[in-house]
Amino acid sequence: MNVREWIKNDILLFDGAMGTMLHKFEMKRGTIPETLNISSPDVITEIHKEYVQAGSDVVTTNTFQANELKLGSGMSVEEIVSAAVSCAKDSGARYTALDVGPLGQLMAPLGTVSFESAYEIFKRQMIAGEKAGADLIIIETISDLYEAKAAVLAAKENTGLPVFCTMSFQEDGRTFLGCDPLTAVMTLQGLGVDALGVNCSLGPELLLPVVDVMLKYSRLPVIFQPNAGLPIFQNGEPVYESVPVQYAVYITKMVRRGVRIAGGCCGTTPEYIRIIKEQLNGMKPVDTAPLRVSACTSGNRTVILDGATTEIGERLNPTGKKKLQEALRTGDTAYLVNEAISQEQAGAQILDVNVSLPELDEPATMAKVIRELQEATGAPLQIDSSDPAAIEAGLRVYNGKPIINSVNGNREVMEKIFPLANKYGALVVGLTLDEDGIPPSAIDRLEIARRIRDTALLYGVSEEDLLIDCLVLTASAQQAQVKETLLAIKLVKELGLKTVLGVSNVSFGLPGREIINAAFLASALGAGLDAAIINPLSARYREILDAYRVLNNEDRDAVNFIAKYSGDTRSLSVQTNPDLTLAEIIERGRKDEAEAAVKKRLEISAPLEIIDGEFIPALNRIGKRFEAGEIFLPQLMQSAQAVQRGFAVIKDHMKSFGGRCESKGRILLATVHGDIHDIGKNIVSLILESYGYEIIDMGKDAPVQKIIDAIREHDIRLAGLSALMTTTMKSMKETIKAAHDEKLECAFFVGGAALNKEYAEYAGADYYAKDAMEGVTIANRFFNQRGAVNSE
Amino acid sequence: MESTKSGVLRYLGGKAHKAPPDLSNLVDDCIAQMREASFFRQVHITFPITREIDGIALAGTDLLLRGVDIARHLSGCGQVVLLATTLGAGADALINRWKRAEPTRSLVLDACATQLIEEFCEKIQRQIWKEAANSGLTATWRFSPGYGDLPLDVQPGILEALNASRTIGLTCTENYILLPRKSVTALVGLGGMTARNTGGCDNCNLYYTCKFKKGGNSDEC
After folding, report:
1. What is the pLDDT at residue B206?
2. List of chain B residues whose C-beta atoms are within 8 Å of the C-beta of residue A769
3. How many beta-carbon contacts under 8 Å exist across A and B?
4. Tens of pLDDT along A42-72?
5. B35 and A CB contact within 8 Å
6. What is the 3-state secondary structure (H, E, C) of chain B?
7. Quick count: other Cβ atoms within 10 Å of Cβ B82?
8. Quick one: average pLDDT of B195-217?
9. Which of residues 402-421 of A touch B (CB under 8 A)?
């Protein structure tokens, strides 16, 4: 019987720890345990046999970190996995589970392993496991949901084996990377694993609340494999003081609550398994009644749409937004990230992301933007595109369970999008329109909603993962139909589906658009709308939502409302001092005031006068004070940010006259390969930019070839490299050498905490910059600009 | 709290009393946010040590501590406490959140995290000293890979010996960068009659470049 069949009707009992048993067999410390599959197969098989005799239905192969990162170049993943599966099968166990633990290194953005390389590393293990004859795959002890996703995709796309996945939660109920059990359930369930659950980290008692959350929401079998408690250390050896009987009591208790797959982790032995088996005494699985909710997640946050009014931020959409278009074209991610954070801070719980511009490679841009946004915001994202390739690119790199925006009643569109939604576990917005456009009547829109639902179900997308947008026409052109939208919302709700609605379109062509929008939002909420796609920065929307949440009994005891509206709201406005000169504004780092001041100055001064007469001298003065230790680094940076804002105004101004704001020179900056400390490089970038230089920022951990290619592509004459660690400074030398070998006419300046002049020379750099201001001096001298500071 | 703040301001390049109100408020805000985002985790285990030809070995592990500085640091010690601390991934995530949108805030948060992990190490070190005193032992200052001539390549071995990826979620890259970033590994020697080594600049790997080092006065550092 296939293990998938088994868990339908029976409790599945795994084994206990491998590492703990190896200690008993006095494995020499420092041996990579996975190599024992080859060097001492008898020992490994013997351990598996003990578990089988104790009652384990499944044994787990000794391959926790049989990945190429951990094994290095000495041994092949395939050899070890194959030997390990043989050892497990030789034990006579009913099922052999290929064990796949974490990579052992953190993934980007916190670490250096990219999603794609993680996938490739896992893929080798999965393929080797299936080839060697494993019956299922268990991905376990995972802390990073993103890593779980890479592993699950690697398993499902390359093998036909059942996939189980467990994550490890700490005392705070979250994994080391901040994932909570609800988010784990929503995402893993969406990715189509066969069972999910909890393992390792703590003893069973402390993990009960985590398992309870999983049982509450999971439609899949739940796995529980805790540690034997917390070890104490004697002579450096872990000793577990837990009692097998107590451990088994907790396991059985959770089986009674609905756990279907049990076993042990660190510290557990065949004795534990034997007693669990005894206590279970042939018990059959207990059915649970999981809550079916509409929920999307990021890597560590879930937004449930049921029973609440949800706000989706619409501002990350370039349609009609010149600045956003420009930011997308130039790759100015700071602008996008700013938009995301400000919407989130205003109250948006989910952010819509649309990057569609005719001249852009939409799939690549979507993937890039989603990566950037994930680093800066914890809000779940709504991937908004009409291009299936862009949607898939976004879905793939997304960490969590996103929303797709959108499908409609057109069969072709649904046939392309629903399989993607099913594969990646995304929610889908369904627009009530089809080949013939938007039907005028509510009844006809309901009909399309019904068609969308029926098709979704065929593709395995469940009703709760469907959000219907009943669409609104403009009140100026089709006034009579606005009410149809409200009626359609009611009808779709009666059908049992969630509704979502882009609100702002209603006011198109009318003055006082915000007034119309706000009234329409209130009416739609009254009709039962679940989620509104709006501009969260609009004060009128804000007031309607805050008030509605009180009236709808969501904001209990009006706690939030009172906190927000009882005080003097006027004090929230920015305190400005009209008497400050532009130079003073810059020197004091008042970046919010810089824009207005520059605009005012542009009425009387030429752009270049402002740059050379105000920006640069002010920066020079503040730079000198920094060098003299009179001010702090953040003050220097605030001034630079103020100038940056001013530059943006000047650029806009010149553009409106058909001109361009010429940069003083183009400089490439990178934190070298292997290093991830980019804060110093970011400071240098900010300061140089404020001096009028154009920066090509290669980010952190930048591979040599990528830097070389960018130097060539952007015709770079001056490049700055940073490294913080003595171990990564060698990458500087390699990068500079590669540039010389390729005969590129590019000079290099280098910096970093552990660097000095001697090392800079050794690395082959042309200049050494001890701090950001010296970077400016070097750049000024190099590009032969006036106004060089601190000329020593 | 005040000492935390002055520590943060020192990392930001100046003396606390010189901080203008805007900056002072920003630092207060960032310290509070960083405390909230951090999850102070640590693991430390005591190992007996033996002196081998090419270095100091930790019993039951494959760790070998090479170099004259660590040998001097552990002279007279029969055991060593391996220690690893981390603020966790939340600290990194908070710093990264503001990296592009508000680089100044990101920098201040980074300095706060550096100060907080340092304070946390101090606290754990005092705890280790206390545990040692209770066993009638004296303990050295903590010594980290990268100090003096102790190479960084011992990091994976230290993490392995502490099972740190499972116990506190601490990992390291191929280039021995600890991740999450705001983390420290260190060694504290335990001995019978050994006088406590003091911390100081002599063993620091930033000896030649550190701007806080003033004539060997480590109080500044």
Report:
1. 55
2. none
3. 167
4. 999 999 999 999 999 999 999 999 999 988 8
5. no
6. CHHHHHHHHHHCCCCHHHCCHHHHHHHHHHHHHHHHHCCCEEEEEEEEEEEECCEEEECCCCCEECCHHHHHHCCCEEEEEEEEEECCHHHHHHHHHCCCCCHHHHHHHHHHHHHHHHHHHHHHHHHHHHHHHHCCCEEEEEECCCCCCCCHHHHHHHHHHHCHHHHCCCEECCCCCEECCCEEEEEEEEECCCCCCCCCCCCCCCCCCCCCCECCEHHHC
7. 23
8. 51
9. none
> How high does pLDDT run on average in chain A?
93
Q: What pLDDT score does A783 carry?
A: 92
C-alpha to C-alpha distances, A304 to A374, A401, A498, nearest whole angstrom: 19, 12, 11
pLDDT category, B65, cuts 50, 70, 90? very high
Q: List the one residue out of A258, A101, A85, A217 whose CA is nearest residue A166.
A: A101
Which residues 6+ apart lie within 8 Å of A730 measured at CB? Answer: none
Nearest to A172 among B12, B39, B161 (CB): B39
How far is residue B115's CA from residue B113's CA, in Å, rounded to a whole number?
A: 5
Written as six digits, the tokens of A763 are 């690395």
What phi and psi, each to the nearest 5 degrees, are found at residue B46? Answer: -95, 135
C-alpha–C-alpha distance, residues A153 and A126, integer Å: 10
Predicted confidence (pLDDT) per residue in A161-182, tens digit: 999 999 999 999 999 999 999 9
Q: Is the pLDDT of residue B195 over 50?
A: no
Structure tokens that stand for A634 in this block: 């953040």
Which H or E run includes A697?
A: strand A694-697
What is d(CA A169, CA A207) in angstroms, rounded to the nearest whole number? 8
**A265: closest chain B residue by CA:** B166
Give the C-alpha separation, A601 to A582, whole Å.
8
pLDDT of residue B220 exceeding 60: no
pLDDT tens, position by position, A554-592: 999 999 999 999 875 544 444 556 678 899 999 998 888
Strand order in the sheet with A136-142: A12-13, A261-262, A222-226, A195-200, A163-167, A136-142, A95-100, A58-60
Residue A38 confidence (pLDDT): 95
Task: Tally the residues of chain A.
Answer: 792
Q: Which two tokens stand for residue A180?
A: 């909570």
| Among A357, A434, A399, residue whose Cα is nearest residue A190 | A399
Local structure of A467: helix, strand or coil? strand
* b/e B13-51 (16+ beta carbons within 10 angstroms → b): bbebeebeeebeebbeebbebbbebbbbbbbbbbbebee
pLDDT of B216 over the 60 cut: no
Q: What is the pLDDT of residue A118?
A: 98
Strand partners, A163: A137
Tell me: the pLDDT tens digits for A350-401? 999 999 999 999 999 999 999 999 999 999 999 999 999 999 999 999 999 9
Contact A333 B46 (CB under 8 A): no
Report the gap between the CA of B197 and the closest CA in chain A (Å): 24
Most B-contacting residue of A34, A576, A633 (CB-CB within 10 A), to test interface? A633
- Residue B99 corresponds to which amino acid? K
* CA distance to partner chain A, nearest, from residue B198 (Å): 23
- Give the Cα separation of B50 and B47 in Å (integer): 10
Distances in Å between the Cα of A711 and the Cα atoms of A744, A761, A778, A785, B36 are 8, 21, 18, 21, 41
Q: Would you state the pLDDT for residue A29?
A: 62
Residues of A in contact with B92 (CB under 8 A): 110
Residue B177 has its nearest CB partner, among A200, A266, A676, at A676
pLDDT greater than 50 at residue A789: no
Return all residues near B17 (Cβ < 8 A) that are at least 6 apart. none
**Structure confidence by residue, pLDDT tens digits, A117-161:** 999 999 999 999 999 999 999 999 999 999 999 999 999 999 999
pLDDT the model gives residue B194: 53
